[in-house]
Predict the structure.
Amino acid sequence: MTTPPPPALFLSRVERRYVQGTSTLDILRGADLAVWPGEIVALVAPSGTGKSTLLHVAGLLERPDEGEVYVGAKPTVALDDAERTRMRRVDIGFVYQFHHLLPEFSALENVVLPQLIRGLDKQVARQRAADLLTFLGLGQRLDHRPAELSGGEQQRVAIARAVANGPRVLLADEPTGNLDPHTADHVFATLIALVRAARVGAVIATHNLDLAKRMDRRVTIREGIVVPLD
């Protein structure tokens, strides 16, 4: 029998707390979450429930106080800072509400840059960047700088940048929250298509229930634990 692949992302009994003066604030209290390759999970949670903390822990930006975070089958909590940085660069892609593109670089160059930081050959990086942007409908906009692109086009460049290094995991925080409904729908559709094609495990935080319903699964955070939304 063929052994099934491990989850792209697996949070096991994760706890995260913050000390404020003489009090301790428990945010995550034994949270579990498995995301499989090609699966898209909607994280729908009100502000203050731990949504950002969960994304930060999953993205190796914060260490949990207890529990483990696996990227692929690799445990990450005990890794040193240099190895965690390497994994963020290679294995994890981030998309935020605001695109954070470098304004002095073209769309193509914005997608090439993270690949060069990883150490890929420049021509290989340029070809991959062009392929990704073309897949996302931006084949005629490769040489345009962010100021010459619409909001939806800028966000699609940000999505291409996030997956340029072939990550196992994509974490997105309100990736369409700054767009009008029509543009948001188009950007979301291209994001979903790219996740499916690349077999990335994706966690997308959103307050948009219509978009959440189009994902494979919906979860929320209640009393520090990840639970199904419906």
Observations:
- The mean pLDDT is 90.
- Helices lie at 51-58, 81-90, 107-118, 122-135, 151-163, 181-198, 209-212.
